[in-house]
């Protein structure tokens, strides 16, 4: 296309040329509509996003200006997004058109993506029984797919596209210029359908797409954002801008190509009865993924994954070749699409959502294509062609196999004994790579067949292409590669680096090839590089040898490894070349293959001893012969070769021999099953050592082997007659030893001599993909087969009969066979798996599970397909066995400097989680046996200590990492690299590595004061600066422990830590409030300077927001200290961590992403309850938070500070959709009110957006009412803050007052009832709370001892009654008037709280126990204890509440003491058995107690002297404690005197922690307050008022 402007092409559909495709054809579009769809009324409908596209303005303006007289143009704009593709939107368009008087001659013009096209198409289809519609598709998906074919629809809550019609448009006018502004991800999304269409129908187009992939992705990925000012609206929009003109021809062709195919298919099958089905390739499986992953994943992305899986299904059925599957997945990757839900980037984009097999199958069962209950799928036959003309029925079993990575192998017992199969394994890797090098250097055209498609060959081909060695083309649908070589003449340096991944063969071969390359006018070197692993693999000996021969080569990073800079201004001289060949034969082959091109004939001498893998050297020499170069071996010198000068002559065709190692699997299959298999292209003349496997291994084991020069046939003996191999040296065929092992496992000699097969010569197999010898031994053991490892091999003890083969299991059931990501291990065991239960006649035999089946992809991706489809094995797929709650008992490792408080906090940690505590230093000394660590170090040095420590740690963590331990470590553990690795690994697997951190200055002071281990300031600072980074990188959590100067602070810290550890381990859930709730925004620069006011500031709040952007400093230490301070003073109130950028109204620099990332990372590590992420942040930052959020909740926020858009604007809609696709936990939208109507618009928005919890408010004075109407987590300020965080912010008191005045809160009356109540503190307690929070309620006294009176005066007919606090003597008498009783009221047998439940009815509750429980918890008792008994003193009503409370926190037994025990026995009878109440009758009884008592509640009157007998029992109980888990704590129930005799006894004599009764009183009242009002009570203020005298 030379002049793209104005040129277009017409495509026919259903017999009419109504699809027009072009570039920049708006004039043509307008003219077509006006001339060919004459009408009095045109209605242009588009979504609000399109309005921002400059091209839209151009089109619509031109349309308006060109309108003929008597015609009018109406415009209607919808909200963007699938959420608005509804009947409701359709209705609003219809109403609009009716109001505007549209009649049957109306023409509707749909401009937009598929959503608009579908919805407007359907609207047109039903408006006045159908009016004309013109489609102007603007997204790639709409252009190539949705606008073509007349399918229209809207969504319903039940499903997508369920309501619709077939309605053909008058025209589909495609202008690819629209694609300029299409967002990048949408662009790529559309490519999935383009590739799909080519894959099913148009092989040539597919090839063209392959060729243009790179330039496409480069352009699309480099799309920019630009500002565009609309002249129609006068607003500035930030829009995406892709330079499609740079790939115009490609884009035009791909759009046109797709449209043509779709038009063709639709024309032959408009109503989708068969052929049109084919367009659903990839959609059966794709839709299933989409149903789970939407809205995080887009349609095209899911279809991309679906296509790969469905292509694999076709390969599984033996229809599609591996090459074709590889081509498909390669092109999808090249266009930026995902090919597996497990791809890392895609997994992050979809927020780690899982796609369980059963759900996928369920979703598939509701597909429209299905045939009743049968699932259907389109099967590809080759690229460009489908198998058959419609979809095919697929069994669940086959779907399961395709969708999983774990394979179930069933016994091979259904395979007929006379089965005779021909199997062609993929080409040999070694031969493939050699053939490519020689053909590239050779003269003439060579067709290479059966080439292995692997990383090595891929990189090799790319390099050959870049270096212009040969022209590369493909034939037979990519099965044959054709190289047109130029005799090495054209090799020239390229600008790109040669990136070789981890391809070892390619990198070794190409290093010498590089020495032959010629410089270009402006460059005289080549860079060869690879991935991180490749940059560690050796290449030194080859480089040494080439350097010695005159080639200049530099190492760019590590000596002896890639990346290399090979200079091309030097020459490859030739002559005598010496090479050390004891490490790799690939060096030898590399020099050999390039030697003919040296300036002089080469004599290659292999020095340094016997060269390794002689067979591979022989292979190279024989292949060079086939390419016309004869190498001769020196007659005088050993390991020396003469290579003449010359060049290769390419044979017209070169068929790569199949891989002989791969061939061992089908051959062994024959051996095991007694059937016959022929491998037709490997025989005795083979170049590969493994070709001997049949003759040297299977034959002596009893198989019939028929080998010609070029083929091998094996027939297995009758079942049970395979013989062990006494001894075999497999040095020439090491890779085949794994196959030999599984055959040997069932070989027996019938003589009872142990059936031993001994394999030697395979030591190198310990350093392959895994330690293969060990792997075979451990996995064979799972089948019940014994082995013995030898220095150079392995012995296998064959079973006497295959019936002894076990289904691999452990105590809890079947287990899988580990494959170590090693293709050969997987393939070997797939064979043995089929021999288990081979003779079983039972119907439901257990299958054997092979894990990670994909690993065979390295050399034989189609192995499972061959096993299943060609060889006849029954296979199935399955979900991993590991249950989802493996993490629930993940251990915790605590690291940090000496004196950071590890010992104490580790204890707290263990107690809070109920874990066992292990101190690693103690463990070390235990293992060392001979003394302390200090002594060990004195004897062996630090280095040795660190080594040992690392070893022990690794061992312990591997063994107990999942078993609920807390490991406290020595401060220096991070000094060892091994330990750091272990820590990081543990953290990455879901374990907690907690860095305990304390201020370094405090640490110094502390350490200097330690008389046993005094330290020097400089020393400590040095250590810290050395380790700080390590602590950070090894830990996934951090806890900052400030210095505590009082016991109370210490207890608070303990509680805060308990909160923290329970939060990060998921044992404490953060519940997003469901009632009216609020959070205060802290704007201090330094919270530690406002410690006294922080608590009052948070009164009534459900959370507190720290505006990090307001802090004075932003380094980790400073911020940690702020968070820690806040937690302690607010008693663990949930924290919202917010870094507000300037753009969004805050103070944080807009583009300081580095600091921002660090801050978010710190927030996650600190386990804050909420993190606010702005929706305008770069998505990589958002995803990095979302993907690591753990149990933290995420608030996705957006602020319109400048009042740029109102609540009906599409911006909010788009932001809401974005929040849904990011799957944030809470959406927070803040607009700005300019007039009061903005508040009403906001309420409408709130009302219609309920998918996610939403905080939505308007800023500014006018917007204040929105802060009152918002229910969830309203941001508030406080009188104690010097500045409000945002304009218009109100205090909670103000909000409640306004809300009350609007009728939102109705004033209630509350009373305390009973007698005497003259001194009751309840009125002051509650009224203090009401006043502080601005609540309109009143609390009064009502003194009476008659329950009837209470009923008559208060309960009956008092609509304003909010509740009653009931005290003596009415706690029992009131019960008859209650409609229902709470569990606590029932068990305790008394009511102290009356709660109205409507209709004049009441609930009787008891909060005394809550007062007891909360008093204990706020004084350091864990909210749930284990291994602890409680003690209750006294036998009255409060004792009953105490028993209920102690049972509730988990006391396993509760002991009861009193002056007289008869009342206790009565009391005991009224409690359920499981309370385990034990009455201590005598002091002797008390002496005999075995349990640990750590919590006690005293409920005896405190104003009388204590009974002697009771005291002596009590004293004995108080001694039954240990101080290990938490301080033993006694709560006094009596309010006065402040210190009672029991308190004194417990504290002074037994060092118990004692809690005065005032706390109980307030906690009880606060519990009532919160139950009645639903609002969090300001505890501190209430406490002060109540206890003030
Ligand atoms: N009828 C069919 O045969 C058929 C086939 C496939 C898909 N569909 C339907 O198509 C819909 C998906 O279509 P889609 O992927 O086009 O989504 P879409 O309509 O939502 O468009 C994608 C996004 O890009 C924006 N956009 C579109 N063109 C733009 C342009 N030129 N510049 C800037 N922004 C632009 C849109 O406003 C939207 O936000 C789904 O509802 C699906 O069910 C229908
Ligand atoms: Zn589709």
Major beta-sheet overview: 8 strands, parallel
| Overall average pLDDT | 91
> DSSP helix count?
52
Structural class: alpha/beta
Region (3-dehydroquinate synthase): 1-396
Family: In the 2nd section; belongs to the EPSP synthase family.
Cofactor: Zn(2+)
Region (Shikimate kinase): 889-1081
Give structural notes.
The chain has 1589 residues and is α/β, with parallel strands linked by helices. Strand 51, helix 39 (1237-1248) and strand 52 (1254-1259) form a beta-alpha-beta unit. Helix 42 (1322-1333) packs across helix 51 (1557-1573). The longest helix is centred in the middle third of the chain and has 28 residues, at 933-960. The model is unreliable at 1-6 and 883-887 (pLDDT under 50). The structure holds nicotinamide-adenine-dinucleotide and zinc ion. Zinc ion binds at residues 145, 193, 283, 299, 303. Zinc ion binds next to helix 10.
């Amino acid at each position: 296309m030379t002049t793209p402007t104005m040129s277009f092409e017409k495509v026919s559909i259903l017999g009419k040329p109504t699809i027009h495709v072009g570039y920049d054809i708006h004039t043509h579009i307008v003219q077509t509509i006006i001339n060919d769809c004459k009408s009095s009324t045109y209605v242009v409908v588009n979504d609000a996003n399109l309005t921002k596209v400059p091209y839209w303005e151009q089109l619509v303006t031109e349309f308006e200006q060109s309108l003929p007289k008597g015609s009018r143009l109406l415009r209607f704009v919808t909200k963007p997004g699938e959420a608005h593709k509804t009947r409701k939107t359709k209705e609003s368009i219809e109403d609009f058109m009716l109001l505007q008087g549209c009649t049957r001659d109306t023409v509707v013009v749909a401009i937009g993506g598929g959503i608009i096209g579908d919805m407007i198409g359907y609207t047109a289809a039903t408006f006045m029984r159908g009016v004309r519609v013109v489609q102007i598709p603007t997204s790639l998906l709409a252009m190539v797919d949705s606008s073509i074919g007349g399918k229209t629809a809207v969504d319903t809550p039940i499903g997508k596209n369920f309501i619709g019609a077939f309605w053909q448009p008058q025209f589909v006018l495609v202008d690819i210029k629209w694609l300029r502004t299409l967002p990048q991800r949408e662009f790529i999304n559309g490519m999935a359908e383009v590739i799909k269409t080519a894959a099913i129908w148009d092989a040539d187009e597919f090839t063209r797409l392959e060729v243009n992939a790179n330039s496409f992705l480069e352009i699309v990925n480099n799309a920019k954002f630009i500002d565009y000012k609309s002249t129609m609206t006068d607003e500035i929009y930030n829009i995406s801008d892709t330079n499609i003109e740079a790939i115009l021809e490609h884009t035009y062709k791909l759009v046109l190509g797709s449209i043509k195919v779709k038009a063709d298919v639709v024309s032959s099958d408009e109503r989708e009865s068969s052929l049109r089905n084919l367009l659903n390739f990839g959609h059966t499986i794709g839709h299933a993924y989409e149903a789970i992953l939407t809205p995080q994943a887009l349609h095209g992305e899911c279809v991309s994954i679906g296509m790969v899986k469905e292509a694999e299904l076709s390969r599984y059925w033996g229809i599609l070749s591996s090459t074709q599957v590889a081509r498909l997945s390669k092109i999808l990757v090249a266009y930026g699409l995902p090919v597996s839900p497990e791809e890392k980037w895609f997994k992050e984009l979809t927020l780690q959502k899982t796609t369980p097999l059963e759900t996928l199958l369920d979703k598939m069962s509701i597909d429209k294509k299905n045939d009743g209950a049968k699932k259907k799928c389109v099967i590809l036959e080759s690229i460009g062609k489908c198998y058959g003309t419609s979809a095919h029925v697929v069994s669940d079993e086959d779907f399961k196999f395709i969708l999983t990575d774990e394979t179930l192998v069933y016994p091979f017992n259904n395979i007929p004994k006379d089965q005779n199969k021909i199997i062609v394994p993929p080409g040999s890797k070694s031969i493939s790579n050699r053939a490519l090098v020689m053909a590239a250097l050779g003269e003439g055209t060579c067709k290479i067949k059966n080439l292995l498609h692997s990383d090595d060959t891929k990189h090799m081909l790319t390099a050959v292409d870049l270096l212009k060695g040969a022209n590369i083309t493909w034939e037979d649908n990519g099965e044959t590669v054709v190289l047109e070589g130029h005799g090495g003449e054209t090799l020239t340096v390229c600008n790109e680096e040669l990136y070789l991944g981890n391809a070892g063969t390619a990198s070794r071969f190409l290093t010498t090839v590089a020495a032959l390359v010629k410089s270009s006018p402006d460059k005289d070197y080549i860079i060869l590089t690879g991935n991180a692993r490749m940059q560690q693999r050796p290449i030194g000996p080859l480089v040494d040898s080439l350097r010695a021969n005159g080639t200049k080569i530099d190492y760019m990073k590590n000596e002896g490894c890639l990346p290399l800079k090979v200079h091309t201004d030097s020459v490859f001289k030739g002559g005598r070349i010496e090479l050390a060949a004891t490490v790799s034969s690939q060096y030898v082959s590399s020099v050999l293959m390039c030697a003919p091109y040296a300036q002089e004939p080469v004599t290659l001498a292999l020095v340094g001893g016997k060269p390794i893998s002689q067979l591979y050297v022989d292979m190279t020499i024989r292949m060079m012969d086939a390419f016309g170069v004869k190498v001769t071996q020196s007659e005088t010198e050993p390991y020396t070769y003469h290579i003449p000068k010359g060049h290769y002559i390419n044979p017209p065709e070169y068929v790569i021999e199949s891989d002989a190692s791969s061939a061992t699997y089908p051959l062994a299959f024959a051996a095991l099953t007694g059937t016959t298999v022929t491998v037709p292209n490997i025989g005795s003349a083979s170049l590969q050592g493994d070709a001997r496997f049949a003759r040297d291994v299977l034959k002596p084991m009893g198989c019939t082997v028929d080998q010609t020069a070029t083929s091998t046939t094996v027939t297995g003996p009758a079942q049970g007659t395979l013989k062990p191999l006494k001894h075999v040296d497999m040095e020439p065929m090491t890779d085949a030893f794994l196959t030999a092992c599984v055959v040997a496992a069932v070989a027996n000699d019938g003589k009872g001599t142990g059936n031993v097969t001994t394999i030697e010569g395979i030591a190198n197999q310990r350093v392959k993909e895994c330690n293969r010898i060990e792997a075979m031994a451990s996995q064979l053991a799972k089948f019940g087969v014994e082995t013995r490892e030898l220095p150079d091999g392995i012995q296998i003890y064959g079973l006497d009969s295959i019936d002894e083969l076990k289904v691999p299991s452990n105590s809890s059931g079947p287990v899988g066979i580990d494959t170590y990501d090693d293709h050969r291990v997987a393939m070997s065991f797939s064979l043995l798996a089929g021999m288990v239960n081979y003779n079983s006649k039972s119907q439901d035999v257990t299958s054997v599970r092979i894990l990670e089946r994909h690993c065979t992809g390295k050399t034989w991706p189609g192995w499972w397909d061959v096993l299943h489809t060609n060889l006849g094995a029954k296979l199935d797929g399955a979900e991993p066995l590991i249950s989802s709650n493996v993490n629930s008992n993940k251990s915790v490792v605590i690291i940090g400097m000496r004196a950071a408080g590890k010992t104490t906090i580790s204890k707290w940690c263990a107690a809070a989680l109920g874990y066992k505590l292990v101190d690693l230093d103690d463990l070390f000394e235990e293992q060392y046996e001979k003394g302390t660590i200090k002594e060990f170090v004195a004897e062996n040095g630090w280095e040795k200590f660190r080594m040992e420590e690392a070893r022990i740690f690794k061992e312990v963590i591997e063994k107990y990492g999942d078993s609920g331990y807390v490991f406290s470590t020595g401060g220096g553990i991070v000094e060892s690299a091994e330990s750091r690795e272990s820590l990081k690994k543990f953290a990455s697997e879901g374990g907690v590595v907690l860095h305990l951190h304390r201020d370094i200055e405090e640490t110094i002071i502390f350490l200097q004061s330690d008389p046993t281990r005094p330290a020097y300031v400089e020393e400590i600072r040095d250590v810290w600066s050395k380790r700080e980074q390590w602590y950070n990188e090894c830990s996934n959590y951090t806890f900052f422990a400030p210095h505590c100067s009082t016991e109370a602070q210490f207890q608070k810290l303990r509680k805060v830590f308990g909160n923290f550890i329970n939060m990060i381990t998921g044992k404490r859930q953060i519940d997003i409030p469901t009632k009216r709730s609020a959070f205060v925004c802290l704007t201090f620069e330094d919270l530690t300077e406002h410690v006294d006011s922080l608590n009052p500031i948070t009164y009534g709040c459900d959370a507190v927001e720290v505006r990090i952007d307001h802090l004075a400093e932003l380094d980790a230490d400073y911020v940690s200290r702020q968070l820690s301070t806040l937690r302690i003073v607010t008693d663990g109130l949930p924290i919202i961590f917010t870094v507000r950028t300037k753009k969004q109204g805050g103070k944080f620099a807009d583009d300081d992403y580095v600091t921002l990332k660090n801050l978010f990372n710190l927030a996650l590590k600190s386990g804050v309850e909420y993190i606010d992420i702005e929706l305008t942040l770069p998505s990589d930052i958002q995803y990095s938070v979302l993907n690591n959020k753990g149990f933290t909740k995420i608030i996705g926020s957006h602020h319109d500070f400048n009042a740029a858009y109102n609540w009906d604007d599409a911006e909010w809609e788009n932001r809401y959709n974005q929040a849904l696709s990011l799957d944030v936990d809470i959406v927070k939208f803040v607009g700005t009110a300019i007039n009061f109507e903005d508040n009403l618009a906001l309420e409408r928005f709130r009302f219609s957006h309920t998918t996610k919890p939403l905080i939505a408010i308007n800023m500014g004075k006018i917007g204040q009412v929105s802060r009152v109407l918002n229910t969830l987590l309203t941001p508030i300020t406080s009188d104690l803050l010097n500045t409000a965080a945002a304009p218009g912010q109100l205090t909670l008191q103000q909000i409640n007052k306004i809300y009350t005045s609007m009728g939102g809160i109705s004033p209630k009356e509350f009373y305390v009832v009973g007698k005497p109540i003259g001194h009751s503190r309840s009125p002051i307690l509650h009224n203090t709370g009401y006043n502080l929070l601005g609540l309109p309620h009143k609390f009064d006294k009502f003194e009476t001892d008659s329950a009837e009176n209470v009923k008559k005066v208060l309960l009956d007919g008092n609509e304003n009654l909010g509740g009653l606090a009931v005290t003596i003597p009415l706690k029992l008498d009131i019960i008859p008037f209650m409609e229902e009783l709470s569990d606590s009221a029932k068990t305790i047998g008394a009511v102290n709280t009356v709660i109205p439940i409507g209709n004049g009815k009441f609930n009787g509750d008891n909060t005394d126990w809550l007062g007891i429980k909360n008093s204990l918890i706020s004084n350091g008792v864990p909210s749930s204890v284990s291994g602890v008994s409680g003690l209750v003193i006294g036998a009255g009503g409060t004792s009953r509440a105490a028993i209920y409370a102690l049972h509730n926190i988990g006391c396993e037994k509760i002991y009861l003491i009193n002056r007289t025990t008869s009342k206790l026995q009565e009391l005991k009878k009224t409690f359920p058995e499981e309370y385990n109440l034990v009455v201590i009758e005598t002091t002797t009884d008390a002496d005999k107690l075995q349990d640990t008592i750590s919590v006690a509640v005293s409920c005896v009157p405190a104003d009388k002297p204590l009974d002697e007998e009771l005291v002596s029992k009590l004293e004995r109980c108080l001694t039954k404690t240990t101080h290990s888990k938490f301080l033993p704590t006694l709560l006094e129930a009596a309010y006065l005197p402040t210190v009672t005799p029991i308190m004194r006894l417990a504290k002074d004599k037994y060092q118990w922690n004692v809690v005065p009764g005032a706390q109980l009183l307030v906690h009880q009242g606060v519990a009532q307050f919160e139950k009645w009002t639903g609002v969090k009570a300001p505890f501190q203020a209430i406490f002060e008022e109540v206890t003030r005298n």
